[in-house]
Amino acid sequence: MSSGAEVLAKRLGGWANQIAARYGFPVYLVGSALTETEPRDVDVRVVLSDDAFYARYGIGPMRAEGQAWIGADEQHEGTRRWHADMAKMARQAANVLHVNIDFQVQSESIVLVRRHHEKPRIRIDTLDLSELPPLTLDTEAVRAGWKEGA
Known about the structure:
globular, four-stranded mixed sheet, alpha+beta, two-stranded antiparallel ribbon
């Protein structure tokens, strides 16, 4: 990892702590920011368990068949919420940090299928996530809330 990546990781730390608290999972710096001195963008990932991903977005688990994803139809309300959530967080980060952020929330199955777990990454949040209250999965309430537009 370049010294520039270490500086960037420290710069992103406060924001990353907010993201970790929001999602309840670690936040990672990945991609070209770890290897290039002047990356085009900064890739940040949060990897949720498949259960947490389903509870939040109502989609998953996913698997790859060729290049097509099964379980994440573009017209699915959960998929639209997932994409909107990532776009919103990327915009907020760019406004606060003045850096082009490529922010993605991924499920464990996405990471495993795409083999992202084999690529370099560094954790940039400093929260002890064991102190956060446990996620309770009430998927019926999630679905009902989405249907009502909540």
